[in-house]
């Protein structure tokens, strides 16, 4: 077999395998999890920072959870945050749900979200705690779906975000990144026992962090989900993901914002789990499609063969998007292609830089040399 053909064949096999596996996960009988028998009281912590797209609808969703006993604790670093007025109005409109707004910034880490959340963790009344980002839309069965994945060997249940309600082409590109690419591979990792934390939604029992040194241990890494994953695994427990991701309404997006978010996440993954980050270069369509184009240009393939290859590659992903009920439009194939063309550039940028900006805060991940100097082993 010619080298170019071999590259294309191996890549297509991996692509189709991951998609079939994700569809199997969705369709298998246990995908519709039963309502858990025990429903312990839960504290839901939601940090806010500014007015995001669809903020009121995402925060409002927390007041309509189908769960017997839970409280909601909103955390803002400053009383001047424009989200404060939205929260105060929602609390007043929903007096039947115990809810509080805590304001203050305890700067114990380089992670502004953790500094914002510490007061909420300390004030939480219940032992089961969900850390839920402000842009996550919580369905009524939000807590059922989290607890349905908790087994005796579980130390944390998470959910990657799935992009929803995109407004404009670049929001569709972000959906292509979040849904049929990142969520697909994270769900596959979970299915084979390699699940890892995702900071958008994290369910954890208080004692797990208390026994490892407390909430402040989440500041051991720049990304709290990476720190939580390592804490849970060190305790001999596993991280599990919900059967389907919870939606994140995107609204309007600009390319600069999409790129900066993806670069931030890529650099965090590279810093926290470098051995798992390495293969990301070849998980998209850029390398195999370039190989297919070279095969056509060199006369090894007919043009029709190359077009068929691209059709199968993206056609399978479109089927996945349709079955998971993720946003799908006539421009989705173009969004998938733009994403794949950007992936190699993103991968390289993640290796050749450590800085990023998160909601106005300049931050940096430690380099591999800095980790080696402190004696930290790569994950």
Please give the domain count.
2
Strand content: 15-25%
Question: What would CATH call the architecture of the largest domain?
Answer: Alpha-Beta Complex
Question: Low-confidence spans: pLDDT under 50, at least 5 residues?
Answer: 367-379
- The strands making up the biggest β-sheet line up spatially as 3-2-1-4-7-5-8
Name the CATH superfamily assignment of the largest domain.
Spore Coat Polysaccharide Biosynthesis Protein SpsA, Chain A
Features:
single chain; 379 residues; alpha/beta; Spore Coat Polysaccharide Biosynthesis Protein SpsA, Chain A; 7-stranded mixed β-sheet; two-stranded parallel ribbon; 11 strands; 16% strand
Q: What features would you describe in this structure?
A:
With 379 residues, the chain is an alpha/beta fold. The chain folds into two domains: 3-23 and 282-373, no CATH class; 42-270, Alpha-Beta Complex (Spore Coat Polysaccharide Biosynthesis Protein SpsA, Chain A). Helix content is 48%, strand content 16%. The chain is built from 14 helices and eleven strands. The chain has helices at 3-27, 55-61, 83-93, 112-123, 142-147, 169-191, 206-212, 224-234, 255-272, 274-277, 286-297, 303-323, 332-351, 368-373; strands at residues 42-48, 70-76, 99-103, 128-132, 154-158, 161-167, 201-205, 238-241, 246-252, 355-358, 361-364. A seven-stranded mixed beta sheet has the order 3-2-1-4-7-5-8, sandwiched between helices. A two-stranded parallel sheet has the order 6-9. The chain is elongated and about 70 Å long.
